Amino acid sequence: MRKSMMVTGAVVLLGIGMTKTAGAKPKDEPVKRGGYLVMVGGCNDCHTPLKMTPIGPAPDMDLMLSGHPVGQPDPMGTPAKADLALSGPDLTSWKLPFGIVYTRNVTPDKSGLGEWTEAQFIKTMRTGRHQGDGRALLPPMPWYNFGGMTDEDLKAMWAFLRSIKPIANAVPDPKVPPPVLEQFQKTNAAIVDTVINHKAPPPAPLAHVHGGAMPAAPTPPAAPTPPAAPAAPAAPKK
Length: 238
Description:
Elements: H1 2-23, H2 29-40, H3 43-47, E1 50-53, E2 56-59, E3 86-87, E4 93-96, E5 99-102, H4 118-127, H5 143-147, H6 151-163, H7 178-196, E6 208-209, E7 212-213
Antiparallel strand pairs: 1-2, 3-4, 4-5, 6-7
Helix pairs in contact: 2-6
């Protein structure tokens, strides 16, 4: 009887253990999920330098997600009126009308995201600010697309970025004037409201001329009143 009870108990415990194992997620599942999200999110398009191959330009996966290589020249030329930006030779630097920006090293090296926390990474995507409360993120980084993701997905992306090979590459700061960075803080805050929180967009500002508000269009003058017809002469008295 005692032996039968011991066997029964062992079976029950084994069943509980199997149930817990079946319901648990493998430790590498967030990393796999994060790798999938990084791939479909197009992170390699900008954060992995391109290199020329016999079949054309392709991502240099030896430098995967390490950002703008140190020493790579800035984009040449000047954007024309119809251009939003000019790209550097490996698609990791961009010359825009307000300055030059570089794609960041997002590997776990200390020159990349090595000293960041998961919370800072998530807050960066939610606010469009460096480490969640620093300078504004700049185009062409589509941070707001990731800002609408769930915490679980952003944590999975973070897990993947922590799992890849660390690459030492200290990307330079953007060459953008401080007033532009201040304006982008306001712009990014408005994007958070409209794109992530789905609030109504702010009213369009008035156009400006030489630093002042454009005046309202003048009221057109009234049409002149035609002169009255001359009075008929009085009949002569008899």
